[in-house]
Design goal:
Length: 761
Amino acid sequence: MSNLRTRPLCGLIALTLLATGCARNPEVAKRKYFDRGMSYLKKNKVREAAIEFQNAVQIDPKFADAHYELAQCFLKQNDVMHAYQELNRAAEFAPNNWRAQMDIANILLAAHKLPEARDRAQTILKGDPHNAEAEVILSNVDALDGLSAQSLAEAKDAVEMDTGRPASYVNLGVIEERAGDLESAEANFKKSVELDPKNVAPTVALAQFFEREKRWQDSEQEFQSAIALDPQNPMTRAELAQLYLVQGQRSQAEAVLRQAKEALSNDPRAYRMLGDFYLVEGQLDKALAEFASLSAQHPKDGEVANTYTELLITHKKFDEASRLIDAILKNAPSDPVALTHRAQILEVQNRPQDAIHILEPVVQNNPGNAPARYYLAVAHLATSDYAQAETQLREAIRLRPNMIDAQRALAALEIRKGDFAALKQTAAAIVQFAPNSPEGYIFDARALEADQKPAGAEADLKKAIEVAPQNPAGYARLGDLLFGEKRVDDAQKYYAQALARDESSAEALAGLVNVDLVRQQPAKALTLVKDQIARVPQSSRFYVLLGEVELKNQNAAAAEAAFEKATELDNNNVQAFLLLANLQIARGSVDQAISGYERAVQTNPRDVRLYVALGRLYEVKGNWQSAEDSYQKALDIVPDYPTAANNLAYLMLEHGGNINVAFTLAQTGRRGLPDLPNSADTLGWAYYHQGVYSAAADLFQEALKGDPKNPTYHYHLGLAYEKESKYAMARKELEYTLQVRPDYSEAGEIRKILAESPKSD
C-alpha cells in the first residue's frame, strides 16, 4: 500500500521540478518575455509590450532584439531619448542590425547632428552597399550642409539602388523641388505613387508638394485619395484640415475634424483633434465645451482630462477644476499632473509662492516632468526670480524641446536680458517645432532688429503673416518695425490689418494711435479709440490708451476717468494704476494715489513697482516708517531690486538705521542704477556716515555731473568737504544750496556751519 501511494507523489515532484527548471532557464524565460512583448505590439499595446521587453533585457542585458523592440516602443511613445539609448545597445550587441543603425541615423539627422548621422549612414553602406535608405540619409545630410549638387547625386543613387522603393523617389522629389526643378520633382512624386498606389505615404507626399506649390485643388484631391486609401488613419484627415486652414477656410477645416471625430470615435488621436483645433485657433469657449464632452465620453483618457482641467483653469472655473483634481489626489496623493494643475490654479490666483511649495517636490520626485518645470518657472517669474525661472525653462526645454510655451517664456526672458544671440536660437527652435506659428518668426525679427538688420526683420515678419494670415501679431509687429523706420503710411496699413483681424488688439490700436499722434492729429486719435471702445467695451488696455490720448488732448480729468475705468475692468492692470496715481499726485491728491496703490497691491502682491511707488508717496507724506516698510517688501520679492535698495538705504541713513546694512543696500542700488545721479548720492551719503569722506565726495561730484543744480547733492558735497577741512570748497557748495533753495530743509544747519567754520582752508 505504501508503494502505491508514494509513486504518484514522486511523479508530481518530478513534474514540478521539470517545470521549475524550465522557468529558471534564462534562455527560455527571456524568449517568453520577448514573444509576449511582440504579441502586445501586434495589438498596439505599447506600454505592456515595453514592460515585457524590459523584463527580457533584465535577464539578458545583451539581448539585442529585445533592446531594438523596446526602442520601437519608446519611439511610439515619442520618448526619443530612451529610444536612442536602446537602439545604441541593440547596435552594440548586433552591429549588423541595419534597421537599428538606420533608426539611429534618422534620430541623429532629426537632431541636426549631421557629422554623426553621416558617419552612421556610411557605416551602414560599408556593410550593406545597396542600402537605399542609408543613401537617402547621406542625401539629406548633404542637403542640410548646403551641398546641393552632392545631395542630388546621392538622391539619384538611392533610386538606382532600389528602383522599386517609393520613398527614394519621394526624397529625390524633395531634393529637386529645393533645387527649383519642379517638373522633375512632380514626376518623381507621381512615380512614388505609381509604384505603390495602395500606400498612403507617397500620396500624402504628392499632396504636400501640391500644397507647397499652392495648387490647392490638386492637393485637396490627393489628400482625399489618401483618406480613401487609409480611412482609419486620422493624420491624413489632419493634413486635409491644415490645407483648408492655409487657405483661410476654417469652416471646412472644422468640418473635416468633426468628421474624423465621428468616423474614428475610438481613436484618441482622432477624437481629440477638433478640440485641439479650437485651442490652436484661440476659440477657448468652444474648446472648453468640446473637452467637457470628451471628458464625459472618455473618462479614462488622461490627456483629455488634463486638457479639460487646464481649460477650466483658464476660464477661472476653479471649483470645477478643483473637483477633478481632488478626485485624482484622493486616490493618488502624489500624482504629479494633478499637483501641477493645483499649482496652476494658485498661480492664476496670484499665489506663486504657494505654487512653488507644491511644484518643487514634484520636480524633485519627477525630474523628467517638463510641464511641472515649466509651471515652476512661471511661478518664479511671478516672484521676479528670473534666474530660477530661466533654469527651469531651459531644463523643461531640454526634456521637451517642442514645448512651445516654455520656448516662448524663455524668449521673453532673453529679450528682457538683452541676450539677442540666445533669442535667435530660441526663435529657430520655435520655428522648427511650430513652423505654422508666427511667434518664432516674430522673435527672430526682434533679434535681427537688435542686430540692426531691419530688412531681415521685415522678411521674418512677412513670413509670420504668410504662415498665419489670420493672426494679428505679425501685422502689428511689422507695423511697429515700419513705424520705427518712419514709414508711417505703410505702418498704418499693417496696424489696420491687425485690428481688422482682432478688434481687441491693443497693440494694433496703439499703433494706429501713434500714427495719428505723429501726424499731429490727437483729436482723430481720440475718436479712433472711442470708436474701438464702443466695439470692445470691456478692454482695460483700451481705456489706458484712451487716458493717454486724453492727456495729449490736454484733458487731464477725462484721462483720470479713463485710467480709473481701466483699473475697474482689470485690477491686475498695474500700468493703469501707475498712470492714475501720477495724475492724482499731479493735482495734489497724494492720499487718493496711496489708496489706489494699496488697492492695487491687494490684487498684485508680487509687483515690486507698486511697493516702490507706494514708498515714494509715503516719503512725500513724511511717513518714513511706512516708506521703509514698502521698500523692504519690494526687496523681499526681488532682493537686488536697485530702486528699492537705493531708497531704503537713504531712509535708513536719514533716520538712524543700521549704517552697515544701509551701506550694502546703497551698493546694490548703485550696481543696478550706475547712471542714476541719485544712486551715486545715496552711496556717497553711506560713505559719509561711515566716515570715508574722500570716497563720499567723489560720489557726490559724480551725482552733480548728472544733475548739476540739485541742492541736496551740493549740500552733501559741502558737508564732505567740511569734514576734509576743505573749508573754502565746502562754503561754496553750502552757499549754493541756500542760493537756489533758501527754504531748504537743512537751511538752519547750513547757516550754523557757515557761521562756525573757517572762511579759508
